[in-house]
Amino acid sequence: MTQALLGAGLLGMALPALSQTSPGNAPLDDLVVTATREAKDAFDIPASIDKINQDTLNSAGGFQVNLSETGYRVPGLVINNRNNFAQDLQISIRGFGARSTSGVRGVRLFSDGIPATMPDGSGQISHFSLSSAESIEVLRGPFSSLYGNSSGGVINITTRDPEPGQRLEAGLVFGSDHARKSTLQFNTGSENFGWVLDASQFETNGYRDHSQARRDNINSKMVFKLDSTKVTWVVNAVDIPEAQDPLGLTAAQLASNRRQAGTNAVASNSRKSVQQMQTGLVIDHSFNADTGLVFTPYSGERQIRQVVASGTVIDLNNDFYGADLRLRHRFALLGAPLLLNTGLTAGVLEQTRQGQSAENQPINRYEQNSARQLDQYVQAEWLFNEQWSLLAGLRNSSIDIESKDQFLTNGDGSGAKDYGKVTTNLGVNYYLSPTQNLYAAYGQGFETPTLLETAYQNVPGAPNFNPNLNASESQQYEVGYKARHGSTKVNAALYAVDTRDEIVVKSAAAGLTSFQNAGRTWRQGVELGLQHRFNAQWASALAANWITAEYKSSNTALTAGNALPSIPKQSLFGELTYQASEQLETAVEYRHIGRMYANDANTAQTDAADLLNWRITHNQSLGDGWRLRTYARVDNVLAQRYVGSVIVNQAQQQFYEPAAERQVLVGVSVTHRW
């Protein structure tokens, strides 16, 4: 009851009478690039897009290890923290990606313009450098598919550009469950050259038994400016020497001891190790004020070794490379400005997969897998008068997936399938006034199965390429309202998604998963984002999402009318911030996480949860270029017991991955500029 009243209070404070003051020119915090590929005021884009800026990332005062620490500020974005570093966060946008059992599916990921999503649609975020992030942009809805296959949404992280002069920053954070993170950042810059280096190490004993982990990250960003050309060179690496996997719990295990490891986790020593190195260039050349070219080549490798609950050992060696070439040109059409972007995207993922029935046993699985992508796209933005603007896009996607079985003792599990689709997008903005607009958008989506999702026709069972999986295709509709009045921002959207051949979990057992197509699914929802500053000291924010996601057709395993699992029906974030001075800020946060189902039969579900968080930050100048920052944070102040995520359709009913109870952290950083 206390939490619900607090949430209602925050909602009320975020809905004051709107003043009529014009905001004037858009501040930098409102400029986004994800929707249009050019720096553009988010207010003028006919799409749902939010930006978490650097000040918000810093004031949140977390470890800056997981996107889940700040992602709940964005309506429609759900990041379920598994408390399990052997598995990536479960990220979904308007339900896309909720099926993921490992890694990120259905959501396109970028870091400094370099793809973190492979040509088959699989993505990883463990190499994201959050401690040096400048902003995180989240695009939802119809225009997400402008980025190609598996774009139910787009998350784009941008790390800081180098600053003039030199800066050195060192930080330490300590938290519950013996969690600790150390960070070192170095910056050097001049008029035409700059370099930022960020290195960090995170360790934790884990909230649950058998969940120790360590993660080392390095992110390097160099920027060169040569006349009309800007070259950005990004190199990043992540090393996870070992992350224990506590697996999921049954309802009975959850009730008896929520901190315990799941069945066979300790006996099989289930765990994962990851090493990844990636590099890429962003070459931006302007021929003149109206025409430019952007070339983004990248390459990398990712090695994964995983021991699953059955004791099976999986070794994956991934080599990937690709490029995007984009030409932009601005001209006049019927006397009104039109910006045209046209481009070509190519990508290759080459994967070697080996398996053993147990450690120190002979290899019993060996495959050469590949995914190849070749897309062409065009996007146009036309401001045809003071009240109307139009954004349109067309993309032709082609993805080829192949598996060549090299271990034939148990039969030939080879297979291949080609996927292709032309998708279109259209959005219209209508300005009610300089501070208010209405928009409507339509888009087609296209999502292929990943190499992992085609690896099994059934589990348990021998690995065998699944040729029966079709790409899912969706029709997305959205209408929205945006307003900026003085110190208040409002973003509201209604959306609906009609999907054919949705890719869903068929069965999950012993750490392995098989997938199938659902006939048809339907999602509809409402998103609301509000920000208001009362005065120099007090400010509030609200992010709310209501969604209905259900099957619309039946087969032997799925029932029409049942809800899609792993999608909370409601999510709410409210924040009230008090800035006592330029040095001291504190805030209270409220979160509501709605119930979600764990299986297609809807016979297993989680309870809704209401959480209260508190944080405080103090910044102090020490003179001579030195600055000290100290902060503390308490998550789940009232120690509510809830489930953070679910493992969909787990065969042994080990659905539940419990979230941590009360978590405390304290941190300090020292910065020197010269």
UniProtKB/TrEMBL annotation:
SUPFAM superfamilies: Porins. PROSITE patterns: TONB_DEPENDENT_REC_3. This is TonB-dependent receptor. InterPro entries: Beta-barrel_TonB, Beta-barrel_TonB_sf, Plug_dom, Plug_dom_sf, TonB-dep_rcpt-like. CDD domains: ligand_gated_channel. It comes from the Bacteria. Its main location: membrane. It is a multi-pass membrane protein. It holds the Pfam family Plug. Residues 183-637 form the TonB-dependent receptor-like beta-barrel domain. It comes from Limnobacter humi. The lineage of its organism: Bacteria, Pseudomonadati, Pseudomonadota, Betaproteobacteria, Burkholderiales. Residues 43-154 form the TonB-dependent receptor plug domain. Belongs to the TonB-dependent receptor family.
